Amino acid sequence: MAVLLVAIIVACFLVVAPGASGYPFQVCGTTRNFAASDATYLASINSMAATLPRNASTSPGLYATAQAGQVWALALCRGDANATTCSSCLAQGFQDLPSACPYNKEATMYYDHCFLHYSNVSLSASDYAFSSAYPFFFSANATAEPGRFERVVSALLNATADYAAYNSSKTTLYASGAVAFDQEIPEVYSWAQCTPDLTRARCRDCLALTIQQGLGTPLYSVGARILGIRCSIRYENKPFLGGPVMVRLSAGPGALAPTPAPSPVPALALVPSVVTPVAAVVGGESSFSRNLFTITHFCFW
Ligand SMILES: *[C@@H]1O[C@H](CO)[C@@H](O)[C@H](O)[C@H]1NC(C)=O
Ligand SMILES: *[C@@H]1O[C@H](CO)[C@@H](O)[C@H](O)[C@H]1NC(C)=O
Ligand SMILES: *[C@@H]1O[C@H](CO)[C@@H](O)[C@H](O)[C@H]1NC(C)=O
Ligand SMILES: *[C@@H]1O[C@H](CO)[C@@H](O)[C@H](O)[C@H]1NC(C)=O
Ligand SMILES: *[C@@H]1O[C@H](CO)[C@@H](O)[C@H](O)[C@H]1NC(C)=O
Ligand SMILES: *[C@@H]1O[C@H](CO)[C@@H](O)[C@H](O)[C@H]1NC(C)=O
User: Mean pLDDT score of the chain, rounded to an integer?
Assistant: First the structure.
C-alpha cells in the first residue's frame, strides 16, 4: 500500500524547468501569469507583507499561511531561526519576490533562514499536494573519496529526515544533524524540515520523495539543498546551523546508526555556536548549480 501511494505520488509529479538562479533561490511559476495592468494581484500580495512575517515569526512553528483576494501565501522559517531573523527574512521575501518573478501568480523564494511562497492555488496539508522539490548544489567536490562521502551523506539525510518527522517537536517538524567524516572534513551538517501542519507520516513521505528527487544531485559535492514548499533538506561540509545538533551519526565503516540525543532536549553541548555568515555558507553564486532534472508541481488526487 505504501509503495503504491509513493508510486502514485511520483507518477503525478510533472517535469518542468522553472527559472532559477543563485542565492536566494527563486522558483517562478511558468504558466500562470497576471496581466501587467492587473494591479489587484500585486496589491493582494503587498497587503500581506505587513502582517504575515510577524504572524509566522511569532507562531510556535515559525509558520503561517494567509489568503488575500486571489492570493494564497505560505511562510516558514527554519526551525533554528529566532523571531527577529524569521520576520526580517520573510519581509525580505515580500520585497524581493514580486520583482524576481514579475507577473507570476505563483512564486517561491528560498533564503537560508526562511522561504515565502504565494500562488492563486492554495495547498492544504491533507490533500497530499506535495509540491516541487528543487535541487541546488555546489559544484566543488568535497573529497577525494566521493563514494564514501555520498554514502555518509545519504545516511545523514535519512537519519535527519527520520528525526524531523518522528523525533522532533510536532510544532516544528525540524531536525539538524551531523556526522564526522575525516580530518579534512571534521563534520558534515544537515537540516530537514516540514511545514508543521503535516502529519509525522506525511512529513517523512515528503522528505523521502524530496531526497529521491535529489537523486541526480551529486551528494559528493561540498553541499546541496533540495528545496520544496512542504519539506526541504540540506547538507553542507561547513557549519550553517543556528542551533544544536539533534541527531548525530557515527561514520565508522558499517557504523552509521543514529545515536539518540543523550537528553530529551537536544544536547546543547554537541556543537556550540555554529552560526556562520551567509556569505561564507553560500560561497560564490557561480559555484552553485541547479540540477536540470527537477521534478515538480502540484499533484492533487
Ligand atoms: C489560477 O490562475 C490560472 C491562470 O490565470 C487560472 O486558470 C486558474 O483557474 C486559477 N486558479 C484558481 C484556483 O483561482
Ligand atoms: C495575522 O494574524 C492576525 C491575528 O490573528 C490576523 O488578523 C491577520 O489576518 C493575520 N495576517 C495575515 C496576513 O494572515
Ligand atoms: C537572532 O539570530 C541572529 C543570527 O541568526 C543573531 O545575530 C541575533 O543576535 C539573534 N537575535 C536574538 C534576539 O536572539
Ligand atoms: C567530482 O567527483 C565526481 C565523482 O567521482 C567526478 O565524476 C568528477 O569529475 C569530480 N569533479 C571534479 C571537479 O573533480
Ligand atoms: C536512505 O534511504 C533510501 C530510501 O529509503 C535508501 O534507498 C538508501 O539506501 C538509504 N541510504 C543509506 C546510506 O542508508
Ligand atoms: C525516534 O523515535 C523513534 C520512535 O518514536 C524511536 O524508536 C527512536 O529511538 C528515536 N530516535 C532518536 C534518535 O531519538
Answer: 78
Among all ligands shown, which has an atom nearest to the Cα of 29? 1
Amino acid at 33: N
Q: 167 C-alpha vs ligand 6 centroid, how far in Å? A: 6
Q: How far is the CA of 144 from the centre of ligand 6 (A)?
A: 33
Pocket of ligand 4 contains residue 139 by CB under 6 Å: no
Domain ranges of the chain: 14-119, 134-284
Q: How many CA atoms lie within 13 Å of 30's alpha carbon, on the beta-carbon side?
A: 11
Considering just the CA atoms, what is the radius of gyration of the chain in Å?
18
At 31-55, the pLDDT tens digits run 778 777 788 999 999 999 989 999 9
Q: Tell me the ligand closest to 275's alpha carbon.
A: 3
Q: Is the pTM of this model over 0.85?
A: no
Domain 134-284: give its CATH code: 3.30.430.20
Per-residue pLDDT at 128:
56
User: What's the CA-to-centroid distance between 75 and ligand 1, angstroms?
Assistant: 21
Return the CATH number of the domain spanning residue range 14-119: 3.30.430.20
Instruction: Enumerate residues 6+ apart whose C-beta is below 8 A from 142.
Output: 149, 185, 188, 220, 221, 222, 223, 237
In short, whether 85's Cβ falls inside 6 Å of ligand 3 is: yes
Atom of ligand 4 nearest to the CA of 221: 1
Span of 1-5, 78-82, 97-101 with lowest mean pLDDT: 1-5
For ligand 3, the distance from its centroid to the CA atom of residue 260, given in whole angstroms, is 28
Question: Distance between CA atoms of 251 and 253, rounded to whole angstroms?
Answer: 6
82, 274, 275: which to mutate for ligand 3, most atoms within 8 A of CB? 82
Can 14-119 and 134-284 be said to share one CATH topology? yes
